[in-house]
Amino acid sequence: MAPKKAPKKHPAKAAKHAAKKGAKHKDEKHSGANDMRKAYEHLGRLAALRPMLAATVVPQLGVLTDLAQQALASGDAKQAKDLLRAGEHLAFGSLAANTKEPRVSEELLEAIHADYEDLTDRAEEHWERHEADRPSTVIPLYDAMREAADRAFDKGAYRRALEFARGAEALAHARGLDRALDAGKPQKKLKA
After folding, report:
1. Are 158 and 27 in contact (CB under 8 A)?
2. Per-residue pLDDT reduced to its tens digit, 30-63
3. What's the domain range around 109?
4. Max CA-CA distance within the chain?
5. What's the total number of domains in the chain?
6. Contact (Cβ atoms closer than 8 angstroms) between residue 65 and residue 46
7. Can you tell me the mean pLDDT for 9-33?
8. Which residue stretches of 50-76 are H helix?
9. 139 domain-assigned
10. Burial, 53: exposed, middle or buried (Cβ in 10 Å; 0-12, 13-18, 19+)?
11. How many CB atoms lie within 10 A of CB 124?
12. How far, in Å, are 6, 51, 68, 106, 149 from residue 73 at the CA level?
């Protein structure tokens, strides 16, 4: 038996409710408290993933975590959230298989290709738009994630490719951070 549908609201009331709900949702989505909560959640997931990660990934996460903590200290929860989101995708990408995935349907493959292209286009667009406004420690990490995503995609390791592409897209949002944050830190070649 099909579930009973709720009675329909009067069209004027429904429009008013939708507008009110949309405004509330937009305010919640972009509030500093929501960004701080998301940063906290990303940090918790990174802490849980850290024991499983290769030794080469841990320093990369350290860079992102340090920058995120500095962003939080300066009151920029959105930057912290984006940096930690990039770290989470980096961690999951490094844990995903680096081999061709068997049995991917044509329909799924088309969706994967479209998503990958969208992610890399958005990452490039954000990266170029804010190129002069980011700490130098982020640059090699972004490059490494983009390269790792492309290599994985070419191999057919789609989960890995999508995670690294999402990480690069998240990292491309990092901007407005004081370049002094990374002054004096040694520049090393980071690997994804």
Report:
1. no
2. 578 899 999 999 999 999 999 999 999 999 999 9
3. 19-182
4. 68
5. 1
6. yes
7. 54
8. 58-73
9. yes
10. middle
11. 14
12. 47, 26, 9, 47, 31
- Give dist(CA 154, CA 145) in Å, integer: 14
Token pair 């990490």 is found at 141
Which residue, chain included where needed, has tokens 């984006």? 82
Residue 9 lies in a domain: no
Within-domain flag for 140 = yes
The sign of the dihedral angle between the CA atoms of 33, 135, 142, 64 is: negative
Both tokens of 128, joined, read 């170029």
| Residue found under tokens 């088309």 | 110
Structural contact between residues 67 and 83, judged by C-beta atoms closer than 8 angstroms: yes
Q: What angle, rounded to 10 degrees, do the helices at 158-171 and 138-155 form?
A: 160
Residue 153 lies in a domain: yes
Both tokens of residue 21?
A: 């709900």
DSSP string, 116-181: HHHHHHHHHHHHHHTTTSS-TTHHHHHHHHHHHHHHHHHHT-HHHHHHHHHHHHHHTT--S--GGG
Answer for the pair 169, 129: CB distance below 8 angstroms, yes or no: no
pTM recorded for the entire structure: 0.76
